[in-house]
Structure formats: C-alpha cells, structure tokens
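lol ok so funny story. i was supposed to be doing the assay writeup but got distracted and ended up predicting the structure for this chain instead. priorities right. anyway since i did it might as well share w the group, maybe its usefull for someone
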Amino acid sequence: MPMHQIFRKFVEQLNESGNADSFRRTMELGTAAFDLPCFAYACMPTRAKGTVNLISNYPVHWTDHYLKSHYETLDPVIYAVCRSVEPFEWGQDAGGFDLDGRQRAFFEEASGFGIRCGFTIPLRDGCGSIAAVTFASSERRTSFIRSIRKNARALQLMAASLHYHACRRLWQTRTIGGRELSPREFECLVWAARGKSAWATAKILGISDATVRFHLGRVRAKLNVTTTRQAIAFLDAQTYLTR
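and the output, tada:
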C-alpha cells in the first residue's frame, strides 16, 4: 500500500479512537505496515510524583512492573528524550548512553522481555508536555534498522499524530471530590461504577487485574475512603456513567 494511503488510514482510525485500547490497536495496525510489531507511547507526568501515561503493546508484566517501579526516573531512553528533540537509535551496538550500574541492570531486565534495542521519537507540544514513541525489537536485525531508517519521517508523523489525539482525548486531569485522578485511575473507577470487576476491567483496558486494583487503591487513598463503593459515591452518575 502506498505511504500516503497508510498514513491516511492511520489518521482516520485515530479520529475514531476513544480510549487507550483503541489507540493501541490503531498504532499496532499502523506500525504493522512497516513490519515494526513492538511499540510504546509514553507521556511524562507534568507534576512531581505524577503517573506516566502509557499506550503500548510491550508485555503487560513488563509495563506493569515499569510503572509501579517508576522506572521512568531510571530509564536512559527517557533521560535522553527529556534532553533532545531529535529521534535516536539505542541498544546493543547503537551506543549513545553512558550507563551506571543501575541503568545497566534496568536494560538487562528489559531485555528479558524482548526489549533490547529501538528507535525513539521525542515529542513536545504547546502545553509543555514531554512524550515519546519508541519502536523496539528483541535484536538489532537488518530488517528492523532498514525499516526505521527508510520510514523515519512517516514514523515521526504517526508519533506526532498519536500524541496529539491521545492528549486531547485521554490525558485530561479528572477531579473527583476535589482530588485529581490520573486518566487511568479515573477510567478504572468509572468501570467499577459500571459494575465491572477488576478482572473484567483489566480485559477491557488491556492491562492486568493487579494494575486495576493498584489504581483503585490509589483512588481510595486520594479520596480518603476505605472501599471502592465509597469512592464510586463521589461520581456524579449523570455526568460520568452515561458517557
């Protein structure tokens, strides 16, 4: 399929996407056209101790562990993203990082999940947010390198389009009971209010049920309540549950 048709179809699907899972599927279909099966989009928090917003098809056990461990404060790729606006390759013989012991251990851990090298596109917008899209591989194959170098411009356009649509539709702060919830915390609370279990919510959102329980626990702590049912009481049914 010609490049302009691939990109047009990708943008059409972005326009129809309304949640993190649909954005993930859209990105998977778009990158499959370039034989790049593994990607991650991360939007950094705008406040201290905030939550990283992530859309990815990396192994869920790795992304759960990454977020809970706040590896964004350790990840050399994120460190480079915060200091550059130029796309860059990383991993194995690509070089570019001066790693300390903890960072080398981080990369070793990531490689256990098949994330050993990649191509990362830093992203900025007018609101000051910092984000990145990474296309990763388990090894530095010739086909992988050829694809990212041949299609670098198209991949940058796809990354920028994803960032724009995700920020506009997903990464808006939700305030409940005078407390700010992250988009994922809010999403888990809404599904709980709709009667979904942690297991069912996990299937809907494409995350693990442990992650759902983790976010609901953060919601309860922020709202200073002891049960999820009490947290649900803070929701205005007419405003949120019928969306």
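Strands lie at 38-43, 53-56, 88-90, 117-124, 130-137, 174-176, 179-181. Residues 3-169 form a domain with the Beta-Lactamase fold (CATH 3.30.450.80).
back to the writeup now i swear
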